[in-house]
Design goal:
By secondary structure, the chain is mostly loops. It has no helix or strand. 0% of the residues lie in helices and 0% in strands. The radius of gyration is 23 Å and the shape is flat. The N and C termini lie far apart (61 Å).
């Protein structure tokens, strides 16, 4: 049996102590979280993307000046 629940939840403040790669934050109804992945080709591509180009020497430096570390 499937239940379809519509909720309106207002959160004024939430503090999350830690997040990892497999964390799940669920606010609302308890139940089963079914993982889902969807792969769409919205660009209509028919062949693999071209290979990456090797960056030239001037691209290895930062594009903007960086401040020296402060101790």
């Amino acid at each position: 049996m499937n239940f379809y629940i519509q909720q309106s939840i207002h959160i004024n403040f939430i503090k999350i102590g830690g997040v990892t790669n497999s964390s799940v934050l669920q606010i609302g109804s308890a139940g089963i979280i079914k993982p889902a992945t969807h792969l769409y080709n919205t660009g209509g591509f028919t062949k693999p993307a071209p290979g990456a180009i090797k960056p030239s020497e001037h691209l290895l430096a930062p594009s903007v000046p960086l401040q020296a570390p402060v101790r």
